[in-house]
């Protein structure tokens, strides 16, 4: 395996910034759902790091469930085609659902998931995303909690991949064009 440092251009969010922001968001989310049962729904695979850290910043416990959808394949462009690869384990009727995502890029993935979950008669559906690219939006997704708005550049790390690589980076960084062009 070769070093990944040479593939990165610059760090957009450091490990400290990510953890500090997730701690703030966890506090806000906890207050928002005071007294209610909250179900965290993660979107595989990108959201694994956000889910793990966000959940550990919550002042109390909340169950998690996972969905896997396909939209990107191994490339860098969104196709807009969404297919369920793995559905939720449990019924969400009457539940307060918080979708946990790593990034909203074009918005196509989350827009589709949100509509799909809303059709299952939950009590509510909200969205938390660590990253959002406002300049890349093709559809608006109602997003209550956003960690960081970032420029429209290809980023990897902290769950975000390029061709399944780089997910394990503790920070979010831009990927050098020589890697994907
Ligand atoms: C990435 C990312 C989001 C989605 C955002 O997932 O994790 O889920 O794309 O893009 P969009 O807003 O343009 O739809 P990807 O499909 O690459 O799968 P992964 O999470 O397994 O990497
Ligand atoms: Mn994803
Ligand atoms: Mg991906």
Automatic annotation (TrEMBL):
<dbReference type="GO" id="GO:0052657">
    <property type="term" value="F:guanine phosphoribosyltransferase activity"/>
</dbReference>
<comment type="similarity">
    <text>Belongs to the purine/pyrimidine phosphoribosyltransferase family.</text>
</comment>
<dbReference type="GO" id="GO:0032264">
    <property type="term" value="P:IMP salvage"/>
</dbReference>
<keyword id="KW-0660">Purine salvage</keyword>
<dbReference type="InterPro" id="IPR005904">
    <property type="entry name" value="Hxn_phspho_trans"/>
</dbReference>
<keyword id="KW-0963">Cytoplasm</keyword>
<keyword id="KW-0328">Glycosyltransferase</keyword>
<dbReference type="GO" id="GO:0004422">
    <property type="term" value="F:hypoxanthine phosphoribosyltransferase activity"/>
</dbReference>
<keyword id="KW-0479">Metal-binding</keyword>
<dbReference type="GO" id="GO:0006178">
    <property type="term" value="P:guanine salvage"/>
</dbReference>
<comment type="pathway">
    <text>Purine metabolism; IMP biosynthesis via salvage pathway; IMP from hypoxanthine: step 1/1.</text>
</comment>
<dbReference type="InterPro" id="IPR000836">
    <property type="entry name" value="PRTase_dom"/>
</dbReference>
<dbReference type="GO" id="GO:0000166">
    <property type="term" value="F:nucleotide binding"/>
</dbReference>
<dbReference type="GO" id="GO:0005829">
    <property type="term" value="C:cytosol"/>
</dbReference>
<dbReference type="GO" id="GO:0000287">
    <property type="term" value="F:magnesium ion binding"/>
</dbReference>
<keyword id="KW-0547">Nucleotide-binding</keyword>
<dbReference type="GO" id="GO:0006166">
    <property type="term" value="P:purine ribonucleoside salvage"/>
</dbReference>
<comment type="pathway">
    <text>Purine metabolism; GMP biosynthesis via salvage pathway; GMP from guanine: step 1/1.</text>
</comment>
<dbReference type="InterPro" id="IPR029057">
    <property type="entry name" value="PRTase-like"/>
</dbReference>
<dbReference type="GO" id="GO:0046100">
    <property type="term" value="P:hypoxanthine metabolic process"/>
</dbReference>
<keyword id="KW-0808">Transferase</keyword>
<dbReference type="GO" id="GO:0032263">
    <property type="term" value="P:GMP salvage"/>
</dbReference>
<feature type="domain" description="Phosphoribosyltransferase">
    <location>
        <begin position="17"/>
        <end position="162"/>
    </location>
</feature>
<protein>
    <recommendedName>
        <fullName>Hypoxanthine phosphoribosyltransferase</fullName>
        <ecNumber>2.4.2.8</ecNumber>
    </recommendedName>
</protein>
<dbReference type="InterPro" id="IPR050408">
    <property type="entry name" value="HGPRT"/>
</dbReference>
<keyword id="KW-0460">Magnesium</keyword>
<dbReference type="Pfam" id="PF00156">
    <property type="entry name" value="Pribosyltran"/>
</dbReference>
